[in-house]
Amino acid sequence: MILDGKTLTISHVTEMARNPELRVEFNSVIEERVKASRKLLDGFVESGRVIYGVTTGVGGFVNWLIPAELAEQLQNNILRGVSSNVGNYLDDDYTRAAMLARINSLGRGVSAITWENYRKYVELYNSGILPCIPEKGSLGASGDLGPLAYIALVATGHWWAMYQGQKMSGAKALKSAGLTPMRLDYKEGLAMINGTSVMTGVAACVISDAKQLLKNYLLISSMSIETLKGKIMPFHAAAHENKPHPGQAKAAAAIFSTLSDSKMVVQDEEVESWLRNLSNGKPQGMDQQIEDAYSIRATPQILGPVIDTILSAEKTLEIELNSTNDNPLVVVERGDAFHNANFHGQYVSNAMDQLSIVLTTMCNLADRRTDRFLDPFHGNGLPPFLCKENPGLRHGLMGGQYCATSLTAENRSLCTPVSIQTLTSTGDFQDHVSFGLVAARRTRDILKNSYYVLAFELICACQSADFRGIENLSSPTEAMYKIVREKVPYLDHDESLTPYIEAVADLLHSNKLLTAVPDDNSTFDW
Q: Quick one: 377 exposed, middle or buried, by C-beta within 10 A (0-12, 13-18, 19+)?
C-alpha cells in the first residue's frame, strides 16, 4: 500500500492490519513534504524561536525552557515519562492499525519528523516487529501518549516487542530484523506520540467489523422474521419513502429483497382475508392479528439508526486517519508553526460511544426476537423453547437464552458514555480529556459480546426453519441455513450449546454468511 496522507480508508487499515504480509510504501511526494517540514523547523530553531516540545518542556513542565542542545535527552525522556500504561497488550491487528495510522499522519509532512526517522518508522512496520502496548491508561487528551510511546521506545531500541512469535527487547528485535535504532532530535519523540493514532487504529478495526456484523444481522433478521411467520409488507419501499432516513430505507430494502421469494413469510392480504371471513359483526378476539410486534415490524426503524451511525462513525474516523493530529504543526504552505490541540480524541470518543449504543440496540432487538422464538405464547405455533422431542424431560434451547440475555445485559451496563468522563490531570494543563482509547476498547468488548447474542438468534431461527419446512425459506435464507447446518445440527437432544454458539459467532466473524446474498443484490452494498 502506498500511503499519501489523504486517502487511507477504514477498509485499507483493516486489510493491512489483518494481513501482516502486506507492506507500506512511500512515494517521492511524501519524502518531499516530510523533508520540507523538517527544514522549516530547523530554521525556526536556528532563529531562536520558542516552540512547545522543541525548546520547552511538555505537559506540566510547559513553562520550562529547554536548550536545543538537550533535544535528544528531552525527546527520549518524553517517551519514558509517558509510558505508564498497564494491562494486557493490544492485539496484533490493533497494533498494526495504530502504526499504520501514525505513518499516514506523519507522512502528511506537517509534524517535522526527520526523513531518516520517518523511513525507519516505515521499516519497523514492514519488518513485522510489533511493539507491546499495554492497553489501559490512556487519557486520549494529548492523543495516545503512552500507547504511542511504546512504539517509539521500540523504534529507539528499548521496551519490549514481539518478533517472529517471540517476545524480546526492542533492541534485540531491531537487530534481528536488521534495523538500526532511531536517534531522536528536537520534536521527534513528541511527533511520534502526540496524536490519536492508537484510538483511531483500534476504532477503525472495530467499525469495519461492526459494519460487516450489521450486514450479517440484516440476513439473520430476515430469517427471524420469516420463521416467526412475520408479515412482509411493513418492509415495502412505500412506507419508508415517507420517512426517508437513509439507514431505514437500506434496512427495509435488504430485508424485502432477501425475502422476495419466501413461501414462509406472510402477506398482509392473507391475514386480512382470514380475519374478514371470521367476522360475525360483533367485537371478538382472535388468535391472529393484523400487525406484528415491534421486534418484527419495526426492524427497519430500529436497525436504520444502526446503519446511519456506523456510516457516520466511518466517515469521522476516515477524516481522523487522514489528519495531522499533532502539536505543534509545522506547516510549509503557511511558513509557520502553530500551537494547537489536534491531538484531542473527542471525535473518536464520541463516535465510539455512539457505536456502543447501536451495537447494544442490535442486541436488544435480538434478545426480544429470541424470546419470541422460545416463548410458546409468542412463537406462532413453534414448540416451547424450540423443543419438539421430549419437552419437559429436555430443555431444548432454553439454556442458550441465559447466555444471550446475560451478554445483552452486560452490553447495556457498558453503555455509559465514556466521552463525557473527563477528569483533569497534569496540574490542570490537561484539564479536559477524551478517553478515546478507553471508548474504543469498550466498544471492542461490546462488539465481542454482540457476536454471541446474534449467533444465538440465528441458531433459534434455523431450529425454527426445521419446524416450518426449509423448502419454504427464501433462496438467501435457505443458503444461510445450509451454511449454519454445516456447524450446528438440528437439536433433538440436549447437549452443551457452547460449541455451537462459538461456531456460529465464528461464521459471523468470517462473513461467510454474506455469501448467501446473490451477486446481483445491491441492497447490501453500502
A: exposed
Q: What is the pLDDT of residue 299?
A: 98
Closest CA to 32 of 118, 102, 90: 118
All three cell numbers of 247, joined, read: 439507514
Read off the amino acid at residue 445: D
Out of 52, 94, 490, 500, the active site residue is: 52
Give backbone dihedrals phi and psi of 90, rounded to 5 degrees, phi first. -60, 150
The residues, ordered by sequence, that sit 6+ positions from 434 with a Cβ below 8 Å of its Cβ are 139, 140, 141, 344, 345, 346, 348, 349, 419, 422
For position 275, what pLDDT does the model report?
A: 61
Task: Please list, residue by residue across 188-222, b when 16 or more beta carbons sit within 10 angstroms of its beta carbon and e when fewer do.
Answer: bbbbbbbbbbbbbbbbbbbbbbbbbbbbbbbbbbb
Q: Give the residue from 247, 246, 363, 239 showing the smallest Cα distance to 295.
A: 363
CATH number assigned to the domain covering 210-323+344-516: 1.20.200.10
In degrees, to the nearest 5, what angle opens at C-alpha 453 toward C-alphas 376 and 397? Answer: 35
Q: Which three cell numbers, joined as nine digits, stand for 455?
A: 449467533
Gap between the Cα atoms of 365 and 147, Å rounded = 36
Model pLDDT, residue 272: 65
Q: Annotated catalytic, 52?
A: yes
Contact 174, 180 (CB under 8 A): yes
Query: In 3D, which of 329, 316, 319, 318 has the Cα closest to residue 33?
Result: 329
Interatomic CA distance for residues 290 and 63, integer angstroms = 72
CA–CA separation, 262 and 477 (whole Å): 9
Tell me the CA distances in angstroms from 138 to 84, 88, 133, 135, 161, one per residue in order.
Answer: 9, 13, 11, 8, 19
Residue 231 to residue 509: CA distance in whole angstroms: 29
Q: How confident is the model at residue 332, as a pLDDT? A: 96
Residue ranges per structural domain of the chain: 10-194, 210-323+344-516
238-243, Cβ contacts within 8 angstroms, sequence gap of 24 or more: 240/300, 243/301
Q: What is the CA radius of gyration of the chain?
A: 27
d(CA 279, CA 292): 20
Ranges in the chain, pLDDT < 50? none
- 10-194 shares its CATH topology with 210-323+344-516: no
478 φ/ψ sector (left φ>0, alpha ψ -120 to 50, else beta): alpha
For 295, counting Cβ atoms within 10 Å of its Cβ (0-12 exposed, 13-18 middle, 19+ buried), the class is: buried
The torsion angles phi and psi of 166, rounded to 5 degrees, stand at -120, 140
Task: Check: pTM over 0.85? Answer yes or no.
Answer: yes
Instruction: Classify residue 525 as exposed, middle or buried by CB count within 10 Å of its CB (0-12, 13-18, 19+).
Output: exposed
Amino acid at 457: E
The CATH architecture one would assign to domain 10-194 is Orthogonal Bundle (1.10)
The confidence score (pLDDT) of residue 161 equals 98
